UniProtKB/TrEMBL annotation:
It comes from Salinithrix halophila. The keyword Metal-binding applies. This is Acetate kinase. It holds the Pfam family Acetate_kinase. The gene is ackA. Belongs to the acetokinase family. HAMAP family: Acetate_kinase (MF_00020). ATP binds at K14, H208, I209, G210, N211, G212, D283, M284, R285, G331, V332, G333, E334, N335. Pathway: Metabolic intermediate biosynthesis; acetyl-CoA biosynthesis; acetyl-CoA from acetate: step 1/2. Gene3D superfamilies: 3.30.420.40. It comes from the Bacteria. The active site is at D148.
């Protein structure tokens, strides 16, 4: 079966086409600047050079049709016909409390995604545009929605409720939802395979740290707590997001700086975190380089980042009543050896022993970077959210 995975933003379509018999990527790409006369299509067939094209693409339907045209092109494509696409997996950011797992899309599912737009106003609308475009262009295919929030719907009530008047939950569903669920789910399964143990017997702490970052406590394969909350702003310090702060800071800063609600929201989401503390960059590579070249603010940002991640891991170790393995994944987790080292270097109480040589010179693929004597294993597992979406799509279509 060939499955097309698409992830739609407000002006973009990211796609990957899989042959699921071997779980191999046949082609992938990105359509950018949708709505412009100078839209850009980046397309690459596995094993071949990237193709870049500029064209007028005014909406998501045109964008997806452009993708399908290049996938079936005699020179640039990998399909004889769009009829070869048996199913489409759609990344949908927010399923609210309506979806605890991936689902085949029907009209009721579309209405539920629409209902949750208030919870993800920047993401669910373009996700819906992508569903509409794909159903229009590929009416013969099965369509599956895979939600970022679904994996976290196993959290117990005491984990997801805030200590606010219950009326806010009853009326407006104010609660913790969590994100990056597809990634956390994927690396948990990979960790079980790497450790040679059933997932149902493991206590795992998954650290998905890229420009956005979240930490999840996973017990017996289920999410029992996660650091992102009702929105992706809560939790860890991130590239441009502040993470956890005293909520009273918001009205205080608004009054002192005469900021509007929109301005202070933008400050916390786009101008805080690594870039806010360092004044240098939101990119961990530049932060690390600056820190070791003597930039005090960059070093402070790195220290704060790893300290807060270490605290979160400690909290989830308590929540799990112990931990078998700590997983690092996503852009920073997979590539920043100094972040991994500084995060775990004060976990002697857990019996964590890092293999510093392996951590510094990491081979490709899932790896154990702790010593054989380490009581808690430390893992680096490259995430693959698109493959997880493809697998979920295949599972539901087969069912």
């Amino acid at each position: 079966m060939k499955i097309l995975v698409i992830n739609c933003g407000s002006s973009s379509i990211k796609y990957q086409l899989y042959n699921m018999e071997k779980e191999e990527v046949l082609a992938k790409g990105l359509v950018e600047r949708i709505g412009s006369e100078q839209s850009i299509l980046n397309h690459q067939v596995t094993g071949k050079e990237k193709w870049v094209e500029t064209a007028e693409i005014l909406d998501h339907r045109q964008g997806l049709n452009k993708v399908l045209a290049i996938l079936t092109d005699d020179q640039l494509g990998v399909l004889a016909s769009v009829d070869e696409v048996g199913a489409v997996g759609h990344r949908v950011v927010h399923g609210g409390e309506d979806f605890a797992q991936s689902v085949v899309i029907d009209q009721e599912v579309i209405q539920a995604i629409q209902k949750n737009v208030d919870l993800a106003p920047l993401h669910n609308p373009p996700n819906l545009l992508g569903i509409d475009a794909a159903q229009h262009s590929l009416p013969h295919a099965s369509h599956v929605a895979v939600f970022d929030t679904a994996f976290h719907q196993t959290m117990p009530t005491h984990s997801y409720l805030y200590a606010l008047p219950r009326v806010l939950y009853r009326k407006h569903k104010v609660r913790r939802y969590g994100f990056h669920g597809t990634s956390h789910q994927y690396v948990a399964h990979q960790a079980a395979e790497l450790l040679g143990r059933p997932l149902e017997e493991l206590k795992l702490i998954s650290c998905h740290i890229g420009n956005g970052a979240s930490c999840t406590a996973i017990e017996n394969g289920l999410s029992i707590d996660t650091s992102m909350g009702m929105t992706p702003l809560e939790g860890l310090m991130m590239g441009t997001r502040c993470g956890d702060i005293d909520p009273a800071i918001v009205p205080f800063v608004m009054a002192k700086e005469e900021l509007t609600l929109g301005e202070v929201t933008s400050m916390m989401n786009k101008h805080s975190g690594l870039v806010g503390v360092s004044g240098l960059s939101s990119d961990m590579r530049e932060i690390t380089e600056g820190a070791f070249e003597g930039d005090k603010n960059a070093r402070l940002a790195l220290e704060m980042y790893t300290y807060r991640l270490r605290k979160q891991i400690g909290a989830y170790t308590a929540a799990l009543d112990g931990v078998d393995a700590i997983i690092f994944t996503a852009g920073v987790g997979e590539n920043a050896s100094i972040v991994r080292e500084w995060t775990v270097n004060r976990m002697n109480y857990l019996g964590v022993e890092l293999d510093r040589e392996k951590n510094a010179d990491l081979p490709k693929g899932p790896q154990v970077i702790s010593t054989p004597e380490s009581q808690v294993k430390v893992l680096v597992i490259p995430t693959d959210e698109e493959l997880m979406i493809a697998r979920e799509t295949r599972r539901l279509v087969r069912d």
